[in-house]
Structure formats: C-alpha cells, structure tokens
Design brief:
The chain is α/β, with parallel strands linked by helices. The protein is 24% helix and 34% strand. Helix 2 links the parallel strand 2 and strand 3. Helix 1 packs across helix 2. The model has no long low-confidence stretch (mean pLDDT 94). The protein binds guanosine-5'-monophosphate and magnesium ion (2 copies). One of its GO terms (biological process) is purine ribonucleoside salvage. It comes from Anaeroplasma bactoclasticum. It is found in: Cytoplasm.
C-alpha cells in the first residue's frame, strides 16, 4: 500500500532491507574485535539505526544525539547540540544519520566528537545526495544515492510527518500547497 501523499517511491521497503543488511554486515567485518560506539542523530536515524543494528554482529555500545542547524525557521548553518555530547574519549565512533545533503550537520558533529577525544569518527548514512554537498565530507558507509529532490519516509520527515513510512518516496505537489 502506498500513502496517498506520495507521488513515487525512491527506495522500496525491499531495497531498504537489502541496504541495511549489506551495511550491517560490512560494519561487522570492518569493526570485528573493536567495540565501536554507534551514535545516531535523532530523529531521522531511528528506523535506519534500529534495522541496521540487527545485522551488527559485534560488541558495541549505543548513544544518540539531538542536533539542530535551525534557529527558528531559518537554516543558520550553525549546528547546535541539545542535551550535551555522549562520552566519546578514545572511542571509535560510527555516526549514523538518515541522509547526507550539504554535509554541514555531520561535518560539525564529527569535529565536535574529535575535539571531545574520539579516537575515530566514521560516517554511515542511509542515503547520500552528492549534488547537495557544500563541505568536503566523505561517508565511509552509504546505503544509496538519491538525486537532488526532497524525500520522506523511513525516518525522513516533512514538518515532522511521514517518518513512519516503511519506504522512501517523493511527496505530491499538493502536500506542499496545503
Ligand atoms: P546537511 O547534510 O545538509 O547538513 O543536512 C542533512 C539533514 O538535512 C538530514 O539529516 C535531514 O534531516 C535533512 N535533509 C536533507 N535532505 C533531505 C531530504 O531530502 N528529505 C528530508 N526529509 N530531510 C532532508
Ligand atoms: Mg537530520
Ligand atoms: Mg527533518
């Protein structure tokens, strides 16, 4: 079943399942015996991180961070952390987010974690929009590439809605003019 507000599906539920299995298996191989710390960026990371971890077959710990690059309704490019940083001293961190666009959010968070003493910070995103990039940042793990269009579902929101869709898709025009 497809939500009535969706005009097309960009990544299907089945494709997502294969992506998370591939990434989780790869991370397990790469980090064998190393006890990484997964840090998810709320709220977009929730379905992705939860599914990914089912395939992470190594000892690890989890944390979450809430970050915002918005001051009111304007994007400032200044990233603020709500509720403080997790303890990352000497840890090998794997940062999890839904999508990498300009790269400003993950770049800022990565720098904060390195400054806080993380041994390494590796980035894992479900989706990458390479055309949107404004800073030089390369994720180690990428589920898939999407063109420069706004997608929702599987953690990705439009005004906080649609995060619960089990697939990723593009909204119909009528949704924006409501
Ligand atoms: P950036 O890489 O530009 O700093 O920001 C990435 C964040 O912007 C993502 O975590 C996500 O919250 C939001 N974002 C970027 N592209 C999209 C998109 O196509 N759809 C949705 N729903 N959010 C997006
Ligand atoms: Mg986000
Ligand atoms: Mg959002």
């Amino acid at each position: 079943m497809m939500n009535d507000d969706i005009q097309k599906i960009s990544v299907s539920e089945d494709e997502i399942k294969h992506i998370v299995e591939r990434l989780g298996t790869q991370i397990s191989k790469d980090y064998q015996g190393r006890n990484p710390l997964f840090i998810g960026l709320l709220k977009g990371c929730i379905p992705f991180m939860s599914d990914l971890l089912k395939y992470v077959d190594i000892d690890c710990t989890l944390e979450y961070m809430k970050v915002s690059s918005y001051d009111g309704t304007k994007s400032t490019g200044v990233v603020t952390v709500k509720g403080g940083l997790p303890i990352v001293k000497d840890r090998e961190v794997i940062l999890i987010d839904d999508i990498l666009d300009t790269g400003r959010t993950l770049d800022a968070v990565r720098k904060m974690l390195v400054e806080a003493g993380a041994k390494s910070v590796t980035i894992c995103v479900l989706l990458d929009k390479p055309e949107g990039r404004k800073v030089d940042i390369t994720p180690a793990y990428v589920g898939g590439l999407v063109p420069n269009e706004f997608v929702v579902g599987y953690g990705l929101d439009y005004n906080e809605h649609y995060r619960n869709l089990p697939y990723i898709g593009v909204l119909k025009e009528k949704v924006y003019s409501k």
